[in-house]
Amino acid sequence: MAVRKISISIDEGTYDLAKTCADEAGLSLSAWLVEAARDRAKLLGWERLFRDYEEEFGAFTEEELAEADAWIDELDDRLTETRKRRGR
């Protein structure tokens, strides 16, 4: 894979936060920023998908949203447990 080297400017607080997150994840700041950019792009894709769905089929119901929240909470709990077992 080709890699492009770039220069970015960020405020000191954002740098400190990103550096701390990268260190805790065991990644270089560069690798962490790449991962963060990919994650954000995926979120934007999901937002588009949900917006398109609602345009075609109508807004999600409160029941559907509650089910989605419960599912996300369950996945988050499982991820937390996996990280604990791996010592992260």
Spell out the blueprint of helices and strands:
Layout: H1 12-25, H2 29-57, H3 62-86
Helix pairs in contact: 1-2
Helix percent reads: over 70%
User: Could you spell the SSE succession in H and E letters?
Assistant: HHH
Mean pLDDT: 94
Count up the domains: 2
Number of helices: 3
Give a verbal description of the structure.
The protein has two domains: about 10-55; about 60-88. The chain is about 75% helix and about 0% strand. The protein has three helices and no strands. The longest helix has 29 residues, at about 30-55. The mean pLDDT is about 95.
Offer a few descriptive terms.
mainly alpha, 2 domains, 3 helices, 0% strand
Concise account of the structure shown:
By secondary structure, the protein is an all-alpha fold. The protein has three helices and no strands.
